[in-house]
């Protein structure tokens, strides 16, 4: 496996164990069928609880039976899952960073007791409802509302592009509290079997096909006060969750790019044209050299992020830079790897084109590449260029 500057030599035992566990799980249980799932537009739901048993959900969180592993170990887990498929990493990211994290960080003791153990084992599945049909890059303009009604709230609105919505037991829904001054954004834990909740699958995707995506319609959905996340008010709530998930994406992208590189290198050494392996051509070597260099520099950035996160110095801007850089790198390099595989490269027998298609989603979700450019632009100049 590509690890050109020997970063993995410095891993501690815990990080190695998690990396190896995830690698083995992926190789034995997922990789053999992932091309079929991608073609069929299905996720291997039978593996959801096994991923829980292996500690893949919320593994960097503590308490409630959760593993509380280091940020490097968590990153390596995301890297190995995405080396198989971005859909697999998305499952773990959504469950851990977008559903368990807000409950852990902002939930009441009762909410934590109710949900964290079940989400951790995969007995329950969660989803994160922020994006709306008319509000993607600008979620603060959301139209979903929560109105006070006796002891609880009534929710109305619609969310779209929600990973796992059709199979979720609980949705973290972000809505404007229309009864409070200033209409702050608040987080609501909405069980998907409540009256008025419907979750339709979006089934015409050409990207992230091995992942279940859907809409959430909320029509006069009553939720009690105890379903409101008490510890957060305003956009800080959803944005802080996205920072956690984007951290995982910065690592995951390195894994998928590495998988493309490994396939391209192996293919170039095996494939003969003009009387010998195509790996002997300078044109092909240049592609491998560039790919290895780009992957290595992105890997270095991911490792640095882990150090900053571990000591509490990681900022959302650092994460924006890494998500933006590493995903663009993986998107570009997956295309080069595909190219090196010639005609065979457009089939599901090889991973690069599947990764390449997935990266159209990863480039877009959790803040598009453009939006992270603007985040960095504002940080570097002090001038916001969003509007
Ligand atoms: C497969 C998939 C899974 C997803 N899962 C989830 C999920 O689980 N939960 C969830 O809440 N959301 C999810 N999303 C939604 C995702 O986060 C949004 O698609 C993303 O935020 C972009 O929003 P949009 O699609 O509405 O695009 P838009 O915001 O309409 O953007 C369209 C284009 O305009 C550009 N643009 C927008 N604003 C600016 C600006 N100010 N300056 C310059 N360019 C700009 C964008 O970069 C983009 O290129 C998912 C999306 C996909 C595709």
TrEMBL record:
<dbReference type="InterPro" id="IPR013786">
    <property type="entry name" value="AcylCoA_DH/ox_N"/>
</dbReference>
<keyword id="KW-0274">FAD</keyword>
<dbReference type="GO" id="GO:0004361">
    <property type="term" value="F:glutaryl-CoA dehydrogenase activity"/>
</dbReference>
<keyword id="KW-0285">Flavoprotein</keyword>
<dbReference type="GO" id="GO:0000062">
    <property type="term" value="F:fatty-acyl-CoA binding"/>
</dbReference>
<dbReference type="GO" id="GO:0033539">
    <property type="term" value="P:fatty acid beta-oxidation using acyl-CoA dehydrogenase"/>
</dbReference>
<comment type="pathway">
    <text>Amino-acid metabolism; lysine degradation.</text>
</comment>
<comment type="similarity">
    <text>Belongs to the acyl-CoA dehydrogenase family.</text>
</comment>
<dbReference type="GO" id="GO:0050660">
    <property type="term" value="F:flavin adenine dinucleotide binding"/>
</dbReference>
<dbReference type="InterPro" id="IPR009075">
    <property type="entry name" value="AcylCo_DH/oxidase_C"/>
</dbReference>
<dbReference type="Pfam" id="PF00441">
    <property type="entry name" value="Acyl-CoA_dh_1"/>
</dbReference>
<dbReference type="InterPro" id="IPR046373">
    <property type="entry name" value="Acyl-CoA_Oxase/DH_mid-dom_sf"/>
</dbReference>
<feature type="domain" description="Acyl-CoA dehydrogenase/oxidase N-terminal">
    <location>
        <begin position="13"/>
        <end position="123"/>
    </location>
</feature>
<dbReference type="InterPro" id="IPR009100">
    <property type="entry name" value="AcylCoA_DH/oxidase_NM_dom_sf"/>
</dbReference>
<feature type="domain" description="Acyl-CoA dehydrogenase/oxidase C-terminal">
    <location>
        <begin position="234"/>
        <end position="379"/>
    </location>
</feature>
<keyword id="KW-0560">Oxidoreductase</keyword>
<dbReference type="Pfam" id="PF02771">
    <property type="entry name" value="Acyl-CoA_dh_N"/>
</dbReference>
<dbReference type="InterPro" id="IPR037069">
    <property type="entry name" value="AcylCoA_DH/ox_N_sf"/>
</dbReference>
<feature type="domain" description="Acyl-CoA oxidase/dehydrogenase middle">
    <location>
        <begin position="127"/>
        <end position="221"/>
    </location>
</feature>
<dbReference type="Pfam" id="PF02770">
    <property type="entry name" value="Acyl-CoA_dh_M"/>
</dbReference>
<dbReference type="InterPro" id="IPR006089">
    <property type="entry name" value="Acyl-CoA_DH_CS"/>
</dbReference>
<keyword id="KW-0809">Transit peptide</keyword>
<dbReference type="InterPro" id="IPR036250">
    <property type="entry name" value="AcylCo_DH-like_C"/>
</dbReference>
<dbReference type="InterPro" id="IPR006091">
    <property type="entry name" value="Acyl-CoA_Oxase/DH_mid-dom"/>
</dbReference>
<comment type="pathway">
    <text>Amino-acid metabolism; tryptophan metabolism.</text>
</comment>
<dbReference type="GO" id="GO:0046949">
    <property type="term" value="P:fatty-acyl-CoA biosynthetic process"/>
</dbReference>
<dbReference type="InterPro" id="IPR052033">
    <property type="entry name" value="Glutaryl-CoA_DH_mitochondrial"/>
</dbReference>
<protein>
    <recommendedName>
        <fullName>glutaryl-CoA dehydrogenase (ETF)</fullName>
        <ecNumber>1.3.8.6</ecNumber>
    </recommendedName>
</protein>
């Amino acid at each position: 496996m590509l690890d050109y500057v020997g970063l993995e030599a410095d891993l501690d035992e815990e990080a190695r164990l998690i990396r190896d566990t995830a690698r083995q799980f992926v190789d034995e249980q997922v990789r053999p069928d992932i091309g079929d799932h991608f073609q069929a537009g299905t996720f291997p739901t039978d593996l959801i609880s096994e991923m829980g048993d292996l500690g893949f959900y919320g593994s960097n969180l503590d308490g409630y039976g959760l593993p509380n592993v280091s940020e490097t170990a968590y990153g390596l887990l995301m890297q190995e899952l995405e080396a198989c498929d971005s859909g697999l990493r998305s499952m773990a990211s959504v469950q851990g960073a977008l559903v368990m994290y807000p409950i852990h960080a902002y939930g009441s003791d009762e909410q934590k007791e109710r949900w964290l153990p079940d989400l951790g084992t995969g007995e329950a599945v969660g989803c994160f409802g922020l994006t709306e049909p008319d509000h993607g890059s600008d979620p603060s303009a959301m139209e979903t509302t929560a109105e006070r009604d006796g002891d609880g709230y009534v929710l109305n609105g619609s969310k779209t592009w929600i990973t796992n919505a059709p199979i979720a037991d609980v949705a973290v829904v972000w809505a404007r509290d229309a009864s409070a001054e200033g209409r702050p954004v608040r987080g609501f834990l909405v069980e998907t079997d409540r009256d008025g909740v419907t979750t339709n699958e979006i089934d015409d995707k050409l990207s992230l096909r091995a992942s279940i995506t859907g809409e959430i319609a909320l029509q006069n959905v009553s939720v009690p006060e105890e379903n409101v996340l008490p510890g957060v008010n305003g956009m800080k709530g959803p944005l802080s969750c996205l920072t956690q998930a984007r951290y995982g994406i910065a690592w995951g992208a390195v894994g998928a790019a590495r998988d493309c590189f490994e396939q391209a290198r192996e293919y170039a050494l095996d494939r003969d044209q003009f009387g010998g392996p195509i790996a002997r051509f300078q044109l092909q070597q240049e592609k491998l050299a560039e790919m290895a260099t780009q992957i290595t520099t992105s890997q270095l950035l991911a490792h640095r992020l882990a150090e900053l996160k571990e000591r509490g110095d990681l900022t959302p801007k650092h994460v924006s830079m890494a998500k933006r850089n590493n995903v663009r790198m993986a998107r570009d390099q997956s295309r080069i790897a595909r190219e090196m595989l010639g005609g065979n490269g457009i089939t599901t027998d090889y991973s690069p084109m599947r990764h390449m298609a997935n990266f159209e989603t990863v480039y877009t979700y959790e803040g598009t590449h453009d939006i992270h450019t603007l985040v960095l632009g504002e940080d570097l100049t002090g001038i916001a260029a969003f509007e």
